[in-house]
Amino acid sequence: MTSALGAAGELAIRSLIERAPLASSLAQAFKSKGFTLALVGGPVRDAILGRLGSDLDFTTNALPQETKKILKDWAENIWETGIAFGTVAGKRGDTTVEVTTYRSEHYNPESRKPSVEYGKDILGDLSRRDFTVNAMALELTGDKPEFIDPFNGLQDLSKKILRTPVKPDDSFNDDPLRMMRAARFASQLDFEIAGNALTSMKDLSQRIEIISAERVRDEFTKILMSPNPRIGITILVDAGLADIVIPEIPKLRLEVDEHHHHKDVYEHSITVLEQAIMQEDRLGGPNLVIRLAALLHDIGKPKTRSFIDGGGVSFHHHEVVGARLAKKRLQEMRFDSNTIEAVEVLTALHLRFHGYGDGEWSDSAVRRYVRDAGALLNHLHILTRADCTTRNKAKATRLSLVYDSLEARIDVLMKEEELSKIRPDLDGAQVMSLLNLKPSREVGAAMNFLMELRLDQGQIGEEKATAELLNWWKDRGSK
């Protein structure tokens, strides 16, 4: 245990004082009741790296009910959703804290939830942390702050390496989600995973099956939203974890894309993801939907691959199959319905542009493109552009210019016809009045006819729309 404060500890303390001044008042609140309190885990790591945020994790020898009493007096709001696992959270000002009783948790072989035993000291608590860089602490209730680093986390931090405080097999068996966390931290921090830990991940990858879908989803999302998701996704695939949590991705390594003979579909998909990330400013910053769509847009290819006489391979209707597979996978991972629907739509539409040629689409086709994309039009622009990964610079330039022309046409039609608000020239009430109908399927059919008319001919006005509707109704009756 490192008792001396040291340069790293001093840096962490300065960062804590500057960025989280309320931490000292919280420590004093615990000390006044006779308890210890230490900043622990990721916040210590981030304080040393000079990137401490306003979400702070602490550990204490106070039992959860005692912690709850202290936080009630100190915080403006508290919540105890994690109290069964020893954690009570609170918020004061802009600072959010989670305070957890010293603990030693482990998973039973078939359990999805950890059993919790409270520990006696901070060393035992730190030994159960996931990685040494997260097993450092700043004890704040002594005579002076004390930097605690029993597993040389500071050294590993300087080397940018992820090691487990105990044997990797023991750590990953206790909480298999730590294997996904390793991939996440590698992506977030640009760290390498120690060789013995990576070997253990490969050996124990099946253990991830006992973790709930929600926890797996959250870790996968953090990997995908990291600065460099390629690192984390590749680790998941190489370690065999992706075979269990999102098997559609490693299957892409088996395919050869008919348009990109120099790369498999897996590499193409990662490249599309990276190119989509480069355009996210169009969406206001990092965006989960576009990243999921970019990664998953081609997952229908393995099921649709067919070989062509004379050589070559095709993936007919892979966008349709892929949309269905993406929906199923994201449902199983417990993503929310809005995200699932958005990724499904984008996957289904990602090839639509390739029928545009050199701009031969009619205005009607452009209207349908906008209508089908709906609120996801900017997402579709990004995905389509990112999907052009050819190394042929002349071809890439041509595709970009053609898509520029499509966006320009959309902009013109948007100004002329307000495409984002496409509606038939008559509403439902008018249809029922003209055709003497009550709400029914017939009204829906009439509205569909009018929408198709609107898409084909643009805005034609109520008079012409009425005439067209009555003619359609007369023909329908005669049939």
Automatic annotation (TrEMBL):
Residue ranges of domain HD in the record: 265-379
GO biological process, one term: RNA repair
UniProt keywords, alphabetically: ATP-binding, Magnesium, Metal-binding, Nucleotide-binding, Nucleotidyltransferase, RNA repair, RNA-binding, Transferase, tRNA processing
SMART domains: HDc
Entry keyword annotation includes Ion transport: no
InterPro entries: HD/PDEase_dom (IPR003607), HD_domain (IPR006674), HDIG_dom (IPR006675), NT_sf (IPR043519), PolA_pol_head_dom (IPR002646), PolyA_RNA-bd (IPR032828), tRNA_adenylyltransferase (IPR014065), tRNA_CCA-adding_enzyme (IPR050124)
A GO molecular-function annotation: nucleotidyltransferase activity
Cofactors demanded by this protein: Mg(2+)
PROSITE patterns: HD
Key word Acyltransferase present: no
Signal sequence region: none
NCBIfam families: HDIG, tRNA_CCA_actino
Record-given protein name: Unannotated protein
Record lineage: unclassified sequences, metagenomes, ecological metagenomes
